[in-house]
Design goal:
GO molecular function: dipeptide transmembrane transporter activity
CATH class of the largest domain: Mainly Alpha
Structural class: mainly alpha
Keywords: Cell membrane, Membrane, Transmembrane, Transmembrane helix, Transport
CATH topology of the largest domain: MetI-like fold
Helix content: over 70%
CATH superfamily of the largest domain: MetI-like
Transmembrane segments: 12-30, 99-122, 134-157, 177-200, 239-262, 282-307
Family: Belongs to the binding-protein-dependent transport system permease family.
Radius of gyration: 24 Å
Largest sheet: none
Membrane topology: Multi-pass membrane protein
Order of helices and strands: HHHHHHHHHHHHH
Length: 314
């Protein structure tokens, strides 16, 4: 198992290196001059050239990449072309907001998917199971931003129970932080929970047909205790795969949800930087998001070995 983890770690590092090269080259070939964008259309050619030298844009691409990656490895993502502020501290602050949102959204999704997916599988021939399947199918078709708008209309505008947007750091006011996080987390979690419910249902149905479940039932165990004691761990293996993909989807969905609820996260920072053509900031944000997805996939691979003893033996 240790050798497998080391091999996966090497693959992760190689993937991060390849991703950094792709992100850098993609930003480098985009049309437009960052120096010209930062100075405006009325800047003189001499001033633009001096600014290009200040930004280091006149040097070879390899030199620019090595300098950028050297800074990234030490937490220095460079200085914004537009605001002239350090990008690293801003990324760190915005990443904290996005991680809280994605983590809370995934918690909501799991709290929905595991019990309802299990019920839909165990009672798949009964009206209650069919109802859960129908509701999950409806939830899959609802985009996260639309769920957010509906939730704001109900719980913020009409009932006035929760704020419609904004962000309060948890160290300043934990209660207001939690109140402000509920609606965005529900917007992400309800949709992803509907998707996960269908996968949980399918996995539990497959496990329920196994011989060891029938043996447990023949010994007197009822359906739910038999699944809990003997089936959920095996059913979790395919669900973990989908869970890794859903975490990546949550990161992408957070971009829109942060705009809907005016949250100062990575998504809103990315959209603002794209609008301002602040390419170095966009480059750093995209790299962080790609690395986050790669790390999630790495964790999923490690969880396989934890959940399945056969993989540890191999």
């Amino acid at each position: 198992m240790t050798v497998a983890i080391l091999r996966r770690t090497a693959i992760l590092l190689a993937s991060v290196l390849a991703a950094s090269i792709v992100v850098f080259l993609f930003m480098a070939v985009l049309p437009g001059d960052p120096a010209q964008v930062a100075l405006g259309v009325n800047a003189t050619p001499e001033l633009v050239e001096r600014t290009r030298q200040e930004f280091g844009l006149d040097r070879p691409l390899l030199t620019q990449y090595l300098e950028w990656m050297g800074g990234v490895l030490t937490g220095d993502f460079g200085t914004s072309y537009v605001t002239r502020e350090a990008i690293g501290p801003q990324l760190l602050d915005r990443l904290g907001v996005t991680l809280w949102l994605v983590g809370a959204g995934m918690l909501v999704a799991l709290l929905i998917a595991i019990p309802f997916g299990t019920v839909a599988a165990v009672r798949h021939r009964k009206p209650s199971g069919a109802l859960v399947s129908a509701l999950s199918q409806f939830g899959v078709a609802v985009p996260a931003f639309l769920a957010g708008i509906v939730l704001v209309q109900i719980f913020a505008v009409r009932l006035g129970w929760l704020p419609s947007g904004g962000w309060t750091p948890p160290n300043q006011d934990p209660v207001e932080w939690l109140r402000g996080l509920i609606l965005p987390a529900l917007s992400l979690g309800l949709v992803q929970g509907a998707v996960l419910t269908r996968y949980v249902r399918s996995a539990v149905l497959d496990v329920g047909r196994e011989d060891y479940i029938r043996t447990a039932r023949s010994k007197g165990l009822r359906p739910y205790p038999a699944l809990v004691r003997h089936g959920l761990r095996n059913a979790a293996i395919p669900v973990v795969t989908v869970l890794g993909l859903q975490l990546a989807t949550l990161l992408v969905g957070a971009v829109v949800v942060e705009k809907v609820f005016v949250l100062p996260g990575m998504g809103s920072m990315l959209l603002d930087s794209v609008a301002a053509r602040d390419l170095l900031t966009v480059q750093g944000i995209v790299l962080v998001l790609v690395v986050a997805v790669l790390v999630v996939n790495f964790v999923v691979d490690v969880l396989y070995a934890v959940l399945d003893p056969r993989l540890r033996a191999s």
